[in-house]
């Protein structure tokens, strides 16, 4: 550890999950693997050394000593945008009527109950659930920084360190997007749970984020919570912080029409216009949701190469609407996916949801093909998290592998030629049998090798929050 | 068998799955069961005799000799609208661009390859997949009646009898909706695969359907394929046939905007106006999809008590659009759900899809609550298939029970109070452990007790069609 006190009691430090040069060579033999083409390749050996893929050979039989991955092997999925603690709301936030804003009140009530120990336990279980579903890299959009009422922890990054430790125990790589949150809305002081999110000013945020980035093994990017929570001048300073470090910069953006209306009323500009004015758009940046965009907004994001993250399952659940995915993609925005509010944790449903939403909106099929959807969920998601080589089964990539069984009823009868479409349009987390992260087996036979009883861990962690 | 020759070779006759008065008493003890309220009841004993629920008692401990159903037990799901053979298209119809109509060409190419033996094998496997997912009653909208080029089989209902036999082997109750199909479009002769669907005229259809209804154990309703395929005068005769027998009457209706345009051009009326004019709407009728309705159409369906079936997963997949579910429900149309094109077989995704589509369209949450969604997928679906007492855990209902495990990561941490929401918003077919149909165990430990290797059966049946 550098520049920060040791972790809180109950928050252990785990092994690194970055590829490690000393890891010995290992080979994985896949019955089928997706190597980027329209169809899967048969008989694929993935040669791994130091946690990184060294070579991929096809068409051969299983080398002596190679570990066998039956079924179809894909690159690990990237969960580009996660709020781990929202998992405690699953099933509990579906009663009564309301909208995004009433849901937010329920989310705040869970945020109020977090402690570093509770958040560690919950995030460990949630990241393990993600690993079981095939996610190997997670971008945590982390905004619960402080104690109740905004009280600072001894280490102001105690919550962030709890998340880092949780990810290490669950054996997913974490990118912590340290989120700046300053106000309740334009010119309005934070209230209630928001005190836990808020730094006093952007300088305090920058100091804290800088400290967090010095923690051993931490991969830290910047996040502007939204133009609701960060005024334009502060947004500019966050963008500067990220630019000076060549760090990632993510921001929630135009998820709700009311957010646009508020920005227009307060600043006379849309959220994208404000973020563009603050120097926050560009190829290291990711706009999260981007559901309600003007034509000019879409052009600004696309032409600047700003990434756009979507979560069809959350955007359905919260009644956000359908964002202009195909349009943004055509304009130049790389798209990425993930589980956001954890309404479900299912990379397959996210992939097909992206295309299904386009079909509902356009009444045409084939807006994104299966290869584009897989690339979005893997390589593009990794790039949105700063892993330029990740998310593909090829030399130089971290050896993240996800294997789905072809023996379940859902994929039965889908012949070799159509396995890629089958995986995208008909598979689910229950089909995932094996997950390898940076060369090391993390899930085998559908079981998490480190956390063991993931359901039990979720139950304990959520009960501690909901029935404290 | 009455009034019809014996089944073709390779098409066995199975045991009846209707409740049978001679079946001995049996008790099932459920850790939790949904009895219709907002929350699940704990410690529920379901007393079954003759395949029918005699009584339900709550709060007690497990009676001596009662079979234990761990987790949450729900009534069996009703799959109100199925085309079993579309299952062969799963994963194979996702390449390239197109729309509903180009998908239809691919569907026709599979229809061309069906034989009674192949259809029996495929439907048996597909109905078994449905049972594994929790469907206990299936409405098969059956339109592939004849041989290649329209050649009549020795028994003109050989295909229908293959489906009945398949359902019996897979242990789901089948309602065969014998579908009238006469033309390719207003005044246009059938072509290609449509020859296999088409009777020469409505009298030939009526004769065939009348014969099919006489088959021992067959439950037969009428279907008008659509106003595309059945002209108004013939639709009236199909509606008359159904009315005279108090039989069900289902029809595809306004799934695509082009269907409305064609009807308006040919007849000066919308599909609903045509079907209303033919006497086809009313409480024994179900409009399938009803995606693109005028205000007057919606009123006609709602005020006449006509049921409306929706399949959110198919309507997404085919780019149909989002139908006015909440509006139709408010106007008086009972809604029902099912797997239609078998893009997926997942009653949970259909339930939440209905609500999620409303959220996407209205940007509000809580349009249907979990209880309404469960009722839609169970009791309302049963009523749409003529089973007035079905789809509930109460005295007089067929003893159809579906148990989901609470031990998987998806539902972990959802406490007792929220199990109903958890089931609807976060469960999947992989969570189903036990299924009881008319009192008899059909699925246990996630395994089909009669078909055994469902995935293997699907593989064989689909390979026979796609690689013949």
Structure, explained:
The structure is a homodimer of 468-residue chains. The first copy, chain A, is an alpha/beta fold and 468 residues long. Chain A has one domain: Alpha-Beta Barrel (TIM Barrel). In chain A, 35% of the residues lie in helices and 20% in strands. Chain A contains 16 helices and 16 strands. Chain A has an eight-stranded mixed sheet, with helices on one face. Chain A has an eight-stranded parallel sheet with strand order 5-6-7-8-9-10-11-12. In chain A, helix 2 runs antiparallel to helix 16 and helix 12 packs across helix 15. Chain A starts with 25 loop residues before the first strand and ends with a helix. Chains A and B meet through helix 1, helix 2, helix 10, helix 12 and helix 15 of A and helix 1, helix 2, helix 10, helix 12 and helix 14 of B.
């Amino acid at each position: 550890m550098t520049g920060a006190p040791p972790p809180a009691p109950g928050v252990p430090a785990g092994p690194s999950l970055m590829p490690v040069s000393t890891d010995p060579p290992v080979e994985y033999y896949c019955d089928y693997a997706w190597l980027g083409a329209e169809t899967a390749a048969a008989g694929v050996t993935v040669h791994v050394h130091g946690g990184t893929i060294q070579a991929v050979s096809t068409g051969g039989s299983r080398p002596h000593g190679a570990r066998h991955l039956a079924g179809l092997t894909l690159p690990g999925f990237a969960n580009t945008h996660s709020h781990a603690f929202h998992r405690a709301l699953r099933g509990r936030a579906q009663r009564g009527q309301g909208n995004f804003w009433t849901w937010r009140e329920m989310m705040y009530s869970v945020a109020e109950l977090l402690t570093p120990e509770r958040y560690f336990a919950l995030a460990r279980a949630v990241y393990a659930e993600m690993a079981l579903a095939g996610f190997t890299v997670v971008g945590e959009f982390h905004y619960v920084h402080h104690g109740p009422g905004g009280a600072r922890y001894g280490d102001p990054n105690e919550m962030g360190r709890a998340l880092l430790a949780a990810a290490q125990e669950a054996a997913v790589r974490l990118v912590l997007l340290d989120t700046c949150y300053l106000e309740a809305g334009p010119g309005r002081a934070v209230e209630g749970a928001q005190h836990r999110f808020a730094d006093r000013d952007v300088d305090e945020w920058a100091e804290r984020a800088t400290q967090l980035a010095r923690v051993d093994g931490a991969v830290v990017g910047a996040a502007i919570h939204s133009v609701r929570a960060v005024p334009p001048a502060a947004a500019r300073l966050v963008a500067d912080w990220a630019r000076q470090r060549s760090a990632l910069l993510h921001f929630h953006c135009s998820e709700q029409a009311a957010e646009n209306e508020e920005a227009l009323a307060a600043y006379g500009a849309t959220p994208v216009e404000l973020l563009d004015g603050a120097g926050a758009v560009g190829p290291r940046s990711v706009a999260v949701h981007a559901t309600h965009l003007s034509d000019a907004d879409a052009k600004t994001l696309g032409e600047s190469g700003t990434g756009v993250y979507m979560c069809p399952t959350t955007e359905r659940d919260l009644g956000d609407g359908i964002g202009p995915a195909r349009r943004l993609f055509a304009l130049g925005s790389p798209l990425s996916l993930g589980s956001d509010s954890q309404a479900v944790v299912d990379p397959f449903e996210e992939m097909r949801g992206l295309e299904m939403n386009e079909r509902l909106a356009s009444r045409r099929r084939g807006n994104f093909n299966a290869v584009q959807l897989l690339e979005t969920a893997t390589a593009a998601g990794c790039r949105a998290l700063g892993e330029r080589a990740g998310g593909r089964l090829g030399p130089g990539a971290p050896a993240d592998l996800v294997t789905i069984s072809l023996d379940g009823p859902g994929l039965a009868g889908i012949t070799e030629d159509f396995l890629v479409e089958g995986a995208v349009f008909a598979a689910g987390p229950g089909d995932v049998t094996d997950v390898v992260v940076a060369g090391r087996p993390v899930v085998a036979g559908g079981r998490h090798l480190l956390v063991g009883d993931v359901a039990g861990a979720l139950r304990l962690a959520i009960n501690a929050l909901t029935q404290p």
